[in-house]
User: What shape does this take?
Amino acid sequence: MKIRLAQIEVRPGRPRENTARMLPLIADARQAGIDIIVFPEMAIPGYLIGDEWERSAFLRECERCGEQVRQAAAGITVIFGNVGLDWKRRNEDGRVRKYNALFVAEDGHFIGPAAGPYPFVIKTLLPNYREFDDSRHFCDLRKLALEEHRELRDLIAPVRSRHALLGCLLCEDAWDMDYAIAPLSVLGESGADLFINISASPFTLNKNHKRNRVFAAHAARLGRPLLYVNHTGIQNNGKTVFTFDGASCVYDSHGGHLECRPAFAEGILTLDIPRGAPWRLPQPLALREDNIGDAADALLYGTRRFMDLCGVERVVVGVSGGVDSAVVAALYRRLLPPENLLVVNLPSRFNSRTTRSLAHQLAGHLECLYAELPIEDSVALTRRQLDGLAVCRADGTHARRLELSDLALENVQARDRSARLLAGLAAAFGGVFTCNANKSELTVGYTTLYGDLGGYLANLADLWKMEVYALAAHLNERLFGRVVIPPGTLALTPSAELSPAQNVDEGKGDPLIYPYHDQLFRCWVERWDRATPEEVLTWYRDGSLEREIGYGGRVGDLFPTPAAFIADLERWWTLYQGMGVAKRIQAPPILAVKKRAFGFDHRESQMGPRYSEPYDALKACLLAPSTAS
Amino acid sequence: MKIRLAQIEVRPGRPRENTARMLPLIADARQAGIDIIVFPEMAIPGYLIGDEWERSAFLRECERCGEQVRQAAAGITVIFGNVGLDWKRRNEDGRVRKYNALFVAEDGHFIGPAAGPYPFVIKTLLPNYREFDDSRHFCDLRKLALEEHRELRDLIAPVRSRHALLGCLLCEDAWDMDYAIAPLSVLGESGADLFINISASPFTLNKNHKRNRVFAAHAARLGRPLLYVNHTGIQNNGKTVFTFDGASCVYDSHGGHLECRPAFAEGILTLDIPRGAPWRLPQPLALREDNIGDAADALLYGTRRFMDLCGVERVVVGVSGGVDSAVVAALYRRLLPPENLLVVNLPSRFNSRTTRSLAHQLAGHLECLYAELPIEDSVALTRRQLDGLAVCRADGTHARRLELSDLALENVQARDRSARLLAGLAAAFGGVFTCNANKSELTVGYTTLYGDLGGYLANLADLWKMEVYALAAHLNERLFGRVVIPPGTLALTPSAELSPAQNVDEGKGDPLIYPYHDQLFRCWVERWDRATPEEVLTWYRDGSLEREIGYGGRVGDLFPTPAAFIADLERWWTLYQGMGVAKRIQAPPILAVKKRAFGFDHRESQMGPRYSEPYDALKACLLAPSTAS
Assistant: This one.
């Protein structure tokens, strides 16, 4: 059998455009004598499209496009994902019954599992975690089994194509990878010749590695080839933007695999697979773990595609001389011609000659447009208008004077830079301005709303500060192959430079000890069991904290006493659950590259900081005057 | 049987505080000789708590609190909602199996349905629409039935308490109200003496009316009383804030009902109900539909509770002289002493004497603090810095000049007001500033990011412009009982006053015709089938548009030709699906009072404006030169 995997870019919410992409590929494949061509999950509608699934006009458009593909399936078998509709079954509120479905079109007909009620294969496991909302929109196979008075496994059956008995399934990401065993096993017992798994799976660092291991083992166990077809492009849930790398793959019957490369690009992979016999790839690939280079590829691809989506061609980056803004500017320089990138330094009296010079150097290395615009006059004007301002009732009584604190003045500077100058510059330049926040800052809200938290996209906001440094090195060493981010920027003490207390030339700066706090925050946000101060304090007491959170140093060197450790822990936890959440609600879209990006992948309610009873008890115990002395 | 409904305020994510609220109420009830006391759904953990459900430390705290309630249930039966845990069943990623559960504690024990695998009642229908994410976190009864090889209906069984056979269920909001028939019917056939429905149901305009109708009919059909216990307080999903009005209710066997009043307040309702016999309330209430007063109550309650959550005691409202900001200021005046409310007018050269005077009048009527701070100097400074600015490469080459357009200057003004002055004023005043956007503006993004879209809470953003006018009238006529919002404000042409083209004294202003566009936008956003331009244009062609969208005028009077109608339709639809989405992503939390508030109740992806094939065809047909002439 000649089989072709078609790794296409899927544009969410645009059935007609996606179908227009598929039809010529089907024609080409037929001409090339291909027996079966396979497109990804939800190839027609797209996948992460919010409540667009509730619009009947959109559903009808998907159905019409599916019909076009069915008609095109003459002399070739076409497998693709689309929404499966049952217009007769409706929820009481009028919503139409929908399935996340795989269609097999052959000789102008849709062929489904023999025993099933529909001419399509229904997704067995609806993911409903992280960014996924499948069970919000699609009907569960369990519900259908109960309605139809059938055994669940009777509904999981292979499709008998002219070419082979096809074990078709829709499966997704690493979290419930092991569940894939269930439908795969059922299909395996049915004697399928070949397993076809269509997917719409966003890039997550190291997900491919995990899937390759698991799927290769499945294919070897089943003794039959397994195909995995995923798409490229970006999709979003509003708050979070996901990249799709494709990484479509074939797994042979002996645990070998071959990938459609490069990642993040449309492509086809054509295979000649013997029917119903074990099969070995001549040159299988080695399993490979992702590294910072893969994250960089995802960031560049995701940023580029998001710019296309928003119609962005010109970008303004405010650069401070620090590493975050330097990395953002360097990333955009990979995506834009020099005349379409404007980097600006916006100094106040607190910005050192050191950082101003680093910003200028960066612009020189990037050969892009540059400007330096001081904010002193405007900050002084705001101070004159507000500090000491008399307010009173409309009749002149009850007068009182307002005062601007030092902290308030720091935020005035940050907002002046972004909401006044960067936003104005972006408009004058005919483009947008960027948000340069990293995940460490975003976790604890160490950022100013309408200030440095403003921007059209936060493309570093899923990277911890230490990961930003690694990305900076990768940009210099690999992507540019020369120094673009100045060594002085990499050596600088991270600082907001908003007050004399943050003087970088005196080695003063951010209150965060990034190598430690990155790891602490990671265990709250990204760790599978989402640790809290209760776990952290228990590990601290047991002496296992460094190991548990993966901190290379000794916590005792940072915090000499339990009181100091606890004060630091509570300071940041309170910010993480307090102002941090409030700020994230108004943050720009975040480009996700890992598990648990803020936004829709890590859903949060504003509830204020919370500590558990065991935490309180442990804290009291650790702070009690020692009786042993 | 003496039964008490305990309508308590539930604080999400705070099991210890909620339990501390419940325990004295249990003790009081025992002393008063009550047999059964009923608390709401998720009374211990709260309900809308995001991914906090994934934190093991939080789940353990909920379990400990449940144990405390169990121990307190001596000499009294306590019914309450909590998370039901099965620590032995875990997802492959380590997440613990969780149920949305109803517990019956009696004589120090939890008693569940006789045939069930757990000592608690499991929620049958997990809502997964609008703001609800139940199936993201909780296990489905269908899944359990399949795992346990049981019929679904065998797992829906009454609980045999010492006092009666209790038909217990967890049920929620109006959308799937009719589904409630299923578990209620199963329980009804089991001979239950009494039906107890615990809930965590947010306020939505007219939801109580619908529920009262449906539940009263159920109780009459079953011939047994039905209790409904809901809580008060607020809960949020980050982007959207929901109020809980309580409205706990008892329905007698004859279709009568009695409510725990007032709404939005903790309270108890004590009843003496005969066991296993029909029962009639002596003085049942009449069914009543909600009106603008109920929306106002929800807004005031939700705003107050959100202030408490954020620790807000002082508020700055930027007032333009227009109706939205006047209504916001008046609402806050109901919640704050005059010295804690500062209203400020921030005029530029484009603001008329008319609106400045109206702002001053409003402040006088509210007797709060007032200031007028012009933005002219700052806007001029920004213009000097940016308009004509030369940018070039770091080496001085490739120079070009930037220009600020008129539209860009409008946005400079809006951002100067909010991000510079209101944010600075809020800091100096020791409080926050408000976002005064309404739903009409938010739908099409007729608002400036970091400008008038900034603020800590958007409490009018679920009301269309015409509803804001109705609320203004309600504030004057009912809540204040005197004119606080000046009649001039109500008579004014709505205008942003950011350019000479928006001169209110010449009757110029917003490009929106609110009585029409409100209804048009409503059919896109709030209508059950989420209409699109395809439906709208079909109705227009058929002459049924006014009726379908509920517009009192004639569309032909607004748009003389199909071309004019289509241009307007596409202008706003493009903004709704384009910049509107981008702006909503960075909007403040929105206080919901109706179905489909923006944010988490109406999930959106950024996908750009989209039109369907039938729309394109219909448009071409309507725009074609008539052949009949």
User: Anything to note?
Assistant: Residues 173-179 of chain B have pLDDT under 50 and may be disordered. Residues 513-629 of chain B form one domain.
